[in-house]
Every structure is written in C-alpha cells, then in structure tokens.
UniProtKB/TrEMBL annotation:
PROSITE patterns: IG_LIKE, PROTEIN_KINASE_ATP. InterPro entries: Cell_Adh-Cytoskel_Orgn, Ig-like_dom, Ig-like_dom_sf, Ig-like_fold, Ig_sub, Ig_sub2, Protein_kinase_ATP_BS. It comes from Desmophyllum pertusum. Residues 1-24 form the signal peptide. This is Ig-like domain-containing protein. GO terms for molecular function: ATP binding.
Amino acid sequence: MYRIRLYQSLLLFGLSIYPDCFSSAQLCVKREDVYKTPKAPPVALHISEFPDDDVIPIGYNITIACIGNSSKEGDSNNSEQPFWIQLFFNSIIVKTCGGFYYDRQETKICKLHIKKISKNNSGEYGCIVSNGFGCTTATLPLDLKEPSKPQFSTHPISRNNILTGQSVNFSCEALGIPKPVITWFKDGRRVPKDEIKGIKAFSLLTFESVERQDQGRYWCEANNNEGWNRSNVANLTEGTIAYLRDEQTVLEIQAEADRDENEVFDEETYLREMGIDRNWQIPRENLEITDDQLGRGEFGMVNKGFYMRRDGSKLPVAVKTLIGLWPFS
C-alpha cells in the first residue's frame, strides 16, 4: 500500500522515472506480464512505418509510437483508462504525453518523430503507460543498417508431373532493408492475395489440391523503397496415370521431358511424346517391372520399372501395385 501511495504521489508531482526504477520498486508491470494483472494498462510499442521489421534503414523518417489501452478491470472513476505516457531513449526521458488525470482516454497514443534517422539514434527505446491503478512498461531495441534492395535467398522450385488432387507448395524468400513485399505471378498475371500466406520477406503459395488449370509458370517479385527484383521461374505441370490391361497395377510416368525447364505443354503433346495412347492404355508386354522396391503404403507398393517407348528407348517409371482392387480390363 505504501508503494502505491508513493507512486501516486510521484504522478501528482510529475516526476519522471525510467522503467528500471519502477521494476526495482515493483510498481510497474512489464508488457508481457499484463495478463497477470487485470488492472494494468496493455501497451504496444512499435515503429509506425516498419511495424514488422527487426532492422530499420538509415536515412529514413520514422515514428516511434507507444499505445496504451484501458485495463480489463476498472471502477466508477474510469481509473482503468491511461492518462500519462512517457517515452525514453537509453534511460533518458525524451517526451511525455498527458500527465493529468483529466487526460485519461480509452486509448492513449504518444509519438516520437525522428527525421533521417542515423546510427546515433540506435539504442533502446521504452515507454511507461500509467492509469489510475498503476503502470506498464515496454521496451524496443532499435537496430539500424544501410538500406538495400531485395535479393532472393529462396526461389520457387519447379514441380512437374504432379497428380491431380495432390498438394504442392511454392515458397519465396527475399532479403533487403527495409523488408521487401513479395507478390506472386502466374503466366504474367498477379496471383490473388487470398491464395498466399505471408507477403513480407517470406511468402508461401499453396495448392491444397492440384487441378489442371493450376498448370503454368510461377514466379515472385520483391519490392521495397530501394528497388525491385524477380525470382527464378518455376513450372507446375500436371502428371498422368496410365492403367495396364489385365493387371492390377498403376503406372506413374516420372521421367523428365527433354524440354526447356520453363516451357509448359498440354496433355496431348505430353501423351504423344511419352508414347502413350489417348485411352491411357499400356500393353503389359511394354512394361518391365524390377524387384527394386521404392516404397509401400496402405494402398499398395511401388516398384521401379521401365516402359518401352515406341522408339525403343526405356522410360524410367514407378509401378504402383494396388491392394484389394479388381484387375483393370
């Protein structure tokens, strides 16, 4: 009780105390511990222009914003509302907002504007948000580096012969200061945002169930204030399954086509080049199944094999023997 009265007296006299002093006196609550104290005001401290960045580019204008909200518990005097915010830089107070009880608000904001930020501005920033019950502290380390344009560290990888219904992921990661914003493209058209997870520095394009219309050329573009860059192109092509006459096996064509890696071709061309007829029927005598087992599961096992094409060449394939199905006719 004595400490609370002491704190209230300090507020009345407008004395400025850095969070470390509050911590030692056990008067203020740390931001991450607010959930333990329902009467403590929740606090957010961030850089408005770069809320998601760990490193800030030198030479930019920035705004450090401390936001205090009403605590979960209150009283008839609106003591839950914040009325005073103090901003600090390396333990020295640099700005105050409010300070009197009539300054209380449901949400109170205090901003510190810095123009053309330099290495001299690097360090630890902090703020104290006070309401009628007590106070909450927050800190924000500021790391500054020279700005740089985007450079891709992860490019999307081509996925060929993907069977209909399978899931596929494409990923892109770009480095740069400030963090680049990533945009996906398919065949020159922008991919809708609702199909993408993440746009800052790292982005994931997911196909939960591949369909024929998903085939195409995909790439990423990364942008920040310093420049632009484009990733490598990745192909997505749909695979084929051919059924053997009078056999309980399924043949998955897994050979690599002798084509440009960025070229996308239709199914008719694919079937013609692979030597498979339009009915997806393969004569049993054209298939050589080895004892080399590639895998097995609840639906059957997969062996390595070779399919004899019309030109006499051998095409490496995976032969899946299904369990519990009648032979195909």
